[in-house]
Structures are given as structure tokens and as C-alpha cells.
Amino acid sequence: MKYFAGIDVSLNESSVCVVDETGVIIGEARGALPRCNDAIRKRS
């Protein structure tokens, strides 16, 4: 079975939705994005 993911990214939040080949929603998630400075600090 094939799965497809849609991703929506904005400045403050991102969302993802996964559907199967018949269009049935398998999973959804939404969350705040980390600030750039915080992400850079974690990688250092």
C-alpha cells in the first residue's frame, strides 16, 4: 500500500498529514517550530 504525506510549514507552526492511496487519513500532527537561535544552539 502506498502512503502520501502533506506538509504545511509557516513561521510559527507546522502540520503534517499522512493518507493512504485511497485517501484515508492515517495520521495528523501539528506543532510549534523551534526558533532559529534555539535550533542552532542545540546543534553546536
Describe the structure.
The protein is α+β, with helices and mostly antiparallel strands. The protein has one domain (3-43). The protein contains one helix and three strands; from the N terminus they run βββα. The radius of gyration is 14 Å and the shape is elongated. It starts with a strand and ends with a helix.
Number of strands: 3
Estimate nothing, just give the exact number of structural domains: 1
Can you give the mean pLDDT?
82
Distance between the termini: 40 Å
Low-confidence stretches: none
- Please give the count of helices: 1
Concise account of the structure shown:
With 44 residues, the chain is α+β, with helices and mostly antiparallel strands. The chain has one helix at residues 36-43, and strands at residues 3-9, 13-20, 25-32.
Write the layout of secondary structure elements.
Blueprint: E1 3-9, E2 13-20, E3 25-32, H1 36-43
Antiparallel strand pairs: 1-2, 2-3
Attribute tags:
alpha+beta; 3-stranded antiparallel beta sheet; 44 residues; 18% helix; single chain
